[in-house]
């Protein structure tokens, strides 16, 4: 089996330095957005999806596990947060906590079931589990079915930051994104991450070396699902609603597409991919269903000719790890 | 009781579609090692093909049953030759992603031209045999009323499934096929054109999907997204069955349709989710699926 990612370069101090410079550049650039005149709502949305794609990439890029149901964490955390904020009247930080806890609990259960299988089977099980949840949310009273939970109050984070002000909200979302990103970055560069990569490359060998690979994979799955849930909770404050679209399997497909376009198994690829896809949806909205066709064409083109993705190609060209 | 029998019949019909579709998936998976995400879209193309034949050229249902699977099968073979072929030797997941992209393109194009609403397709009213006009109308079986067309779908798909099983498990061609799945290099050494066989197999699997599409056109309306949600249920069927044997996917397909129908009668709230719940239960007990081989 050929590896899913192009990760032949060793992690050297130089690679770490490159990535740190990239990270600083990204943080500064994103920090300047409110002063640039770019529509902040678009960037906030893209940031939520970028974090989601990074969480997804943690699984496929470093664990070799293609989850085709990652939308379930986005949607579940969204519903939990939205319900806590609107019906229970929780403060924002507690609302986020409820959402993240919901996604974490879900990832424990779904991870326990799906982690027993690999490759295509794993993809299909996660897909079917997320569709199971979709139908539950469709019928459960608290989600309000097709209408979703709307008009969610944004409130004051820690009683200080007024989230109804776009600039404040932007920096809170940005802080959330950067925090989640660093957590993932730390994970993949830890001994745990190294074991994860070895499982991706050759699970049998990892087992023979004495690693309980199922436990590593389960932990990665829970971590990925929880961070994806965090992205879903942040998204509630941006969109002020939680709806069925976030749980549907087409959303899972979009997450895969973002990561694939940016570069599977690259640190910054999912971020770039999320921005490209969200920008495409934003600016091509006038074309109606042709957007779906364009996304399909990108999928096909990426798989056939462009498997490394944008960042993967750049990193390969410069012989750097990014 | 009437309602129970009616739900059982609906279950059997859904089961027919599950069986035909998961059978096609199993055949394709066996040869190409690809989960064909485009299967739902190709099923939809089969239904649209029947619709076009009737409304553009006046060719009716009976010919559509033959022409649509062949036409869509040829389309599938072109896909295999131009795209899927290049993924041989790569991780299987790329096949899944590629076919997902193809499904998006096909469904998107149809949605652009036909919107999301359904187009009607009439049940054929010829030939006239013994007081019945084609497959229209129904008969009273005493305990329930059976619409002829629905009975026809169940019987016809069962025959097609068994014929496919016979072709693959009992004939010489099937033996080559199974051998090529096990060891393509060796089979090639015997002078058999394996790439051509792979292409034909993909065409066969796709043809089965298109056939299911034609069968479903008079029951469910012809819609661009008719296959999109169905295919997820079929994937669950495949996971439960385990993709091990051809017979496994046929039996699992029909059985799950019936179970779904029974759920609709006894506890309707769970009818959409029962297949997925079953999948979870089966996996907890037997991670390889009911008849599965190891991944």
Automatic annotation (TrEMBL), chain A:
Pfam families: BPD_transp_2. It comes from Bradyrhizobium icense. Keywords: Cell membrane, Membrane, Transmembrane, Transmembrane helix. Its main location: membrane. CDD domains: TM_PBP1_LivM_like. GO terms for cellular component: plasma membrane. This is ABC transporter permease. The chain crosses the membrane at residues 20-42, 49-74, 94-113, 120-137, 168-188, 218-237, 257-278, 290-310. It is a multi-pass membrane protein. InterPro entries: ABC_transp_permease, LivM-like. PANTHER family: ABC TRANSPORTER ATP-BINDING PROTEIN, HIGH-AFFINITY BRANCHED-CHAIN AMINO ACID TRANSPORT SYSTEM PERMEASE. It is found in: Cell membrane. One of its GO terms (molecular function) is branched-chain amino acid transmembrane transporter activity.
UniProtKB/TrEMBL annotation, chain B:
Coiled coil: none annotated. InterPro entries: ABC_transp_permease, BCAA_transport_permease. One of its GO terms (biological process) is amino acid transport. The chain crosses the membrane at residues 6-27, 34-54, 60-79, 91-110, 149-168, 198-219, 231-259, 266-285. It is found in: Cell membrane. It is a multi-pass membrane protein. Belongs to the binding-protein-dependent transport system permease family. LivHM subfamily. This is ABC transporter permease. It comes from Bradyrhizobium icense.
